[in-house]
Amino acid sequence: MEVRCRKRISIISHKLGEKGKKAVIVLFWLAVWQGASWLTANSLVLVGPLEMAAALGRLAVTGGFWQTLGVTFLKILAGFFTGFLAGFLLGSLSFACPAAEELAAPPLAVLRAVPMASFVILLLIWAGSRYLSVMISAIVVLPVVYTQILSGLKNTDPKLRETAKVFRMGTAAKIRYLYLPSLIPWILTAGQASIGMAWKSGIAAEIIGTPDWSVGGALYLAKIYLSTDELFAWTFAAVCLSALSERLFAWVIRQSMDRRGRRDAAKKRGKTRLTGNGG
Fold first, then answer.
1. Cα separation of 240 and 129, whole Å?
2. What is the pLDDT of residue 268?
3. Distance CA 91, CA 100 (A)
4. For residues 155 and 161, what is the distance between their CA atoms, to the nearest angstrom?
5. In angstroms, rounded to a whole number, what is the distance separating the alpha carbons of residues 192 and 220?
């Protein structure tokens, strides 16, 4: 009996495929969530996906909903890319100059150790709430990216480094042909690890600072008015934007690398033609 069940499950899994299996898993947990909502029978405590979808539909027909999502999306992306660029440059500098790594260690340790709520309150006092989510997102992203970039540079193949020395490659050539290609997996890992953290910390900062046109502010108001369905709806929208940001980042990195690869291939073809004509 057990063997038959396993065979049937295997056949069903094969027919569904990977995407089908993921869809079934998602539907299963949505059903569990909806069932828990019905059992609770208290919309102030827990609402199901159906109630959340209804609230999302109500919000989606208002212009303020999309403006709020757009403002928060741009602010958190701005913070993410600011922190990413700062972490990338600082990691590169620390690799090139060991003294810079030693100097950067104490402030980075502080960034990792101090509770994010403390930074939120301090920045709220110093700079106000308007760009609070930008600054907090950057602070969260910087140490993650710094660690990944520095580790990636240190783990570059020593043989390739030696070859670059032997052929006396210039700094620009080393960066372009040696370090950047080996950094791609580390860059993708840094982005995927930090972008979700940027969204969590950025939204949390908005909840505390409650700036105008912010998802965090909308969540705070939903809590104040006990609109649990809208609370879930705004949370779902934030999760979707976080996933979109992660995909967008990966797409930008891959597109830039593909473009660079095509450009290098075109240059090689041009050199080959020139050599052939000269021969």
1. 24
2. 58
3. 9
4. 11
5. 27
- Residue 76 burial class via C-beta count within 10 angstroms: exposed 0-12, middle 13-18, buried 19 and up: buried
**Torsion angle of the four alpha carbons 24, 28, 30, 33, in this order, in degrees rounded to the nearest 10:** -170
pLDDT in tens, 168-186: 777 777 777 777 888 888 8
Kindly give the parts of the chain with pLDDT less than 70.
1-17, 164, 166-167, 258, 260-279
Q: What percent of the chain has pLDDT over 70?
A: 84
Contact present, 90 and 190 (Cβ < 8 Å): no
Q: How distant, in Å, are the alpha carbons of 24, 30, 58, 163, 242 from that of 27? A: 5, 5, 23, 54, 21
Torsion from C-alpha of 25, 26, 28, 34, nearest 10 degrees: 170
Cβ atoms within 10 Å of 245's Cβ, excluding its own: 19
